[in-house]
Amino acid sequence: MNFLAHSLISLEIDAKTNQQTLYGNFAGDFYKGSIYNLDLADDLKGGVVLHRLIDNICDRPESLTAELLRDNFRLYKGIVSDIMIDHFLAKNFQSLFGKDLDIVQSKIFQQINQYRAIFPENFIPMLNWLEAHNALKNYADLDFLERVFLGMSSRVKKGEILRNAAGEIRQNYTRLEERAIQEFFTVKEKASREFCEAS
C-alpha cells in the first residue's frame, strides 16, 4: 500500500490507542535497518514497526491485487498494486469513510510536518512533492496516476513496464476496484489486530 492507505490505518489505530504511529508509518520506507538502531524516539518507532507489518502482509502470496497484476508486471506488481489501492481509496473516499479527503489529507500533512526537524534527508523531497501536488487526493485521478507511473518508470531499473500500469487499470477497472478495496480492508484488519496485540 502507498501513502494514503498507510496513513488511514495509522489514523484509525492512533485514534483508538492514543499512539503516534502516523509519522513512522508514513515515512517508513525511509528508515532502514533494525528498529532498535533507528535514530527515533521510542514512541515514533512503533510507526515504522506498523509500516513494515503492513508491507509484509501486502507481500503475502494470496494478495488479492498482486495476483491479478503478476503476469503483466512481474517484479513490479507490488508497486502497481500499492499505487492502485491508493487510487481506489481516494476515488471512493466519501462513500468508504464518510469523510472529506481534503480535510483528511490536510490533517495527515499537518501531523507529519510536526516532525520535520527529524526527517531523513531523502524523505524531504518526497513529502514536498506529495504536498505540492495534493497527491493523496489526486491519486483519485487516473491521469495523475499515469504521470506518477511514468515518472517512476524512468527512476527504477527496467521500469519501462510501469508505463503500461494506468492502461492496465483502465482496461480492468471494475474488477481491480473491487479487489483493491477488499485488499485494503483485509490488510487493515490484520495489521491493526497484530500491531495492537504486540503493543
Written account of the structure:
The chain has 199 residues and is mainly alpha-helical. The protein has one domain (3-198). The chain has twelve helices and no strands.
Briefly characterize the structure.
InterPro entries: ACP_PD. The longest helix is centred in the last third of the chain and has 26 residues, at 173-198.
SSE run: HHHHHHHHHHHH
Strand content: under 5%
What is the helix tally? Answer: 12
Described by strand count, sense and barrel closure, the largest sheet is:
none
C-alpha Rg (nearest Å): 16 Å
Parts with pLDDT < 50 across at least 5 consecutive residues: none
Number of strands: 0
- For this structure, the quaternary state is single chain
- Helix-and-strand structural type: mainly alpha
Helicity, as a percent range: 55-70%
Count of separate structural domains: 1
Task: Provide the residue-averaged pLDDT.
Answer: 93
* Cα end-to-end separation: 22 Å
Q: What characteristic shape results from the CA principal axes?
A: globular
Keywords: Fatty acid biosynthesis, Fatty acid metabolism, Hydrolase, Lipid biosynthesis, Lipid metabolism
GO molecular function, one term: [acyl-carrier-protein] phosphodiesterase activity
Protein name: Acyl carrier protein phosphodiesterase
Organism: Mannheimia varigena USDA-ARS-USMARC-1296
